[in-house]
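User: Can you help me understand a structure? I only have the sequence.
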Amino acid sequence: MNVRRSAAALAAAGVLAAASPALAASPSPSPSTVLPSGLYGDTDPTYDGVWRQSLALLAQRTVSVTPAAKAVDWLTGQQCADGAFAAFRAEPARACDAKVMADSNSTAAAVQALSALGGHEDATGKAVTWLKSVQNKDGGWGYAPGGASDANSTAVVIGALAAAGERPAEVTKGGRSPYDALLKLALPCTGEGAGAFAYQPDKKGALTANADATAAAVVGALGAGLDATGGKGKGAGTGCDESDPLTPGQAAANGAGYLAKAVAADGHLTSALAGAPEQPDYGNTADAVVALAAQGGADRAAKPLAWLERNAAAWAKQSGPAAYAQLVFAAHATGTDPRDFGGTDLVRALNATGPAPQPAKTAEKNDDGGSGTNVWWMVGTGLAAGAGIGFLLSSRRKQQL
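Assistant: Let's start by predicting it. Here is the structure, written out as tokens:
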């Protein structure tokens, strides 16, 4: 679930209901913009502040990094009283009003991050309540409240519900669940785009395959979130399942099959702006890696993963924290070391885009629940030589790195 639209496209379109948050490199902040000290990234956060902060914090959590307290405080401070999040609030101390454009994507991403961090049940509970209040009658969500359901928004909300301890299949509106909404966007096994998902139906109700939406929907249909782990599905499968009706798992397998074919030739997905030639789509390829690994295991994602390891470092450096987070998620889903991702330490690079994380804890709990501090005191007492103590403490620090 990367950035579906650039900030420029959002501004030009003038309607948020048709797009997801901007992950691509945002415009530089204007001279009047003062970036909060707790925010990740140094570009204009107007369209993606909460999204990129949430992805950064969630990615850090997946690699056992504890974010800086002020980074977490910045995110929680963006929440409106009713539980919703907007893409960015420049004045969080001011109460949200009708001019604050809350959206499902920012809210769902924040829920996933805060749930992973733990200790924010009040904030996530209010956010989930808001998400339920804006659920569409078909069981899905659009980007903005009242907007038509789309695969990307519905999928990221499913991930939020699951992260918060909800059962997505039981979160219904008019008797329909989020999975019902996703299945309505699944293409059949015949014709162009067989097995894929559409973003939304067109004006005539027709479905057009969309790789971005498919990557999101595969993960959502599996009941997983942005930090999905590998092998949640039942394997790669041998073809497109034509069962009627499809189960969410079957639809996820079909979607993964479509993605596997899409990356088979070059190892990446492609994108093109109007009037521009096709070019590699790094963010959506990273999402495809997560989807393929979550559905069929790491081996199925091997080719696009290898392509990302060879080519994505420069893109992530230019694009910022959410891009690094996407690559961390790809590494996480496939069991790849994010600290050596094609020679790049993604964790170090991500951490450098915001406030320094909290230092690793130096005391571990024993099996009996007590503090490890006493154990080290006893060891130190038994080893009277100062050199011995220094050696033990030095070794312990190295093990924590």
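Now, to help you interpret it: The first helix runs from residue 7 to 13. The chain has a mean pLDDT of 86. Let me know which part you'd like to focus on.
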